[in-house]
Amino acid sequence: MSTPDTAQRSLDHWSEAGRSGMEAFYALATEDYRQLVLAADWPTLLGQRAHDGWSLLDVACGSGKFPTALARHADLSRLPPVAYDLLDPSAFSVAEARSVLVDPFVARHDLVTTLQDLPEEYAGYDVVWATHALYALPPDELDTAARRLVAALVPGGLGVVAQATSGSHYLRFYDAFRAGVQDATPYTTAEGVRDALAGAGADVREQRVTYRTGTADRVVVEGFLQRCAFDDSLSLEEMEAAPVLGDYLASCRDTEGTYTFSHEAALLWF
Ligand SMILES: C[S@@+](CC[C@H](N)C(=O)[O-])C[C@H]1O[C@@H](n2cnc3c(N)ncnc32)[C@H](O)[C@@H]1O
């Protein structure tokens, strides 16, 4: 039997069966969201769009790590309640994100769909965001997805996509995995999303943040990397021994065996 391609493996893993892998991933990846919160003055940016009856679309909501990080690291107490629509092709993700929302975020519609297939009546949002969200969206469907994203935002609203750049860990790791272990459709990059947004008519401003994550705990590293590839069949030892992927992982490891992953995320404001 052939291995399912990237988008299907993503969907298979964003499921109840994939819960332990998701939790292993966020042992390190929670930092991605803290970095996004620290990168901007969210109370002011959101406050400028806030009004009675405002609305927000969270694209590829996953398990809600970004709104959770916002609630933890920013003071949103002055914002009025915002109707929060949850979009994700995984019903598991939508339910997870719904269960963690706190004020001022008030869950409204569950939109179990890909971004590319979002019906056109979902528009007029004051805020649209997609945070570390679009990697498994096939690059050849990115133009359609970007058009939907831009069309969903009310004129003058706040749109932002946060995504790793091509030189960042998630992309370098998956490229090495595809070259050395299993060919697959590549992840989309921040650069690809930026170009697609511009092609869809958005005026995009790019901001970049760099940071590192890491640990000496090999169990944590294994769980994190398995989720980075949506493949829990490979042990860390097998990944380290694989062609191309092994070289990349060696470049992330010091002589004591501690792993450090280098990240660069682009915040694409539109
Ligand atoms: C890493 S999670 C996103 C994390 C999330 N933004 C958060 O704050 O926790 C990636 C999500 O993208 C979803 N996804 C994959 N392909 C998608 C697509 N084409 N359109 C929308 N969402 C997609 C997956 O089902 C998964 O739930």
Automatic annotation (TrEMBL):
It holds the Pfam family Methyltransf_12. Transmembrane segments: none annotated. It comes from the Bacteria. Residues 57-158 form the Methyltransferase type domain. This is Methyltransferase type 12 domain-containing protein. The lineage of its organism: Bacteria, Bacillati, Actinomycetota, Actinomycetes, Propionibacteriales.
